[in-house]
Amino acid sequence: MSFNTFGHLFRFTTWGESHGPALGVVVDGVPPLIPLAEDDIQVWLDRRKPGQSRFTTQRREPDRVEILSGVFEGVTTGTPISLMIRNEDQRSKDYAEIKDKFRPGHADFTYWAKYGIRDYRGGGRSSARETAARVAAGAVARKVLGEGVRVRGALVQIGPHAIDRARWDWDAIEDNPFWCPDRVTAQSWEGYLDGVRKAGSSAGAVIEVVADGVPAGLGAPIYGKLDSDIAAAFMSINAVKGVEIGAGFAAAALSGEENADEMRIEDGRAQFSSNQAGGILGGIATGQPVVARFAVKPTSSILAPRRTVTIAGEETEIVTKGRHDPCVGIRAVPVGEAMMACVLADHLLRHRAQIGR
Length: 357
Known about the structure:
The chain has a 5-stranded antiparallel β-sheet with strand order 1-2-3-7-4. The protein is built from 7 helices and 18 strands. It is α+β, with helices and mostly antiparallel strands. It is globular. A hairpin with a 2-residue loop joins β12 (about 265) and β13. It has helices at about 40-50, 110-115, 130-145, 185-200, 225-235, 255-260, 330-355, and strands spanning about 5, 10-15, 20-30, 65-70, 70, 75, 80-85, 150-160, 160, 205-210, 240-245, 265, 270, 280, 285, 290-295, 305-310, 315-320.
């Protein structure tokens, strides 16, 4: 299986399966002499790990990271940084009944069609468990970016219920189990998701990621666009089915006057009156906040019986048991942050290599 690597100069390769002994990531291209310790990574992994509320899977994983290489005396050495996270609460027996059946909505059929074999224990590489390794890579990316760039994510919609942007408060995301910037909507989501969970069903979500402090100039024309790499990064996350930058699809309903981000000079510098472009023009950062959103489909593992087929080509029904997120979009917030950080770190290094600053 190829294509387990993402990025160009800042590049990472994830490895491991959902129900294997461990998973991890090798991060390459990190400059030397950057302070890095396990605690710098653990703080971000703790945000993603399962079992933190009744609205996420109850699989209990400590997700403790171990640095195996690339760090000496507290700083990076410029060599590959290898990180490992052990699996400690896998229950492979939960999947024994479906080992010969394809779960609708999952990658079971396509993996089997391509490779002739699939890891039915939670999906193997197709499991969202793989995203823990991405979050670890994102923690390293944040160190490369430095304190001047801040990447934050928020859940802005669950099912048909979206936030009221007039009530947006970044401080609110730490006060509820949804990473929601709207305290009122977060309370209504609790009742909605309780009903979804008790029904054995699931819901989709929309996540917004904002990067402040991104220097103007990151990105390259045509085939190295910053927004195209962000879109590729988000689309690579499990269960993501749509990505938009700035106004995104809503831009189609705007007039040219409404969509244009007018410019002026303040304190001798160019400033924008709005940010419909999401901080990127022509594939290059404008210096405004980079704003992107991605849509996550409802979790495919649900308790309702669904029609499917077997490896032998027989029609049957399937019920997916085990421990699953009623809304996988909740834990996708720190994953989206990590992928944004990785793209920005890659483009920062590429920019320095070409421009020299």
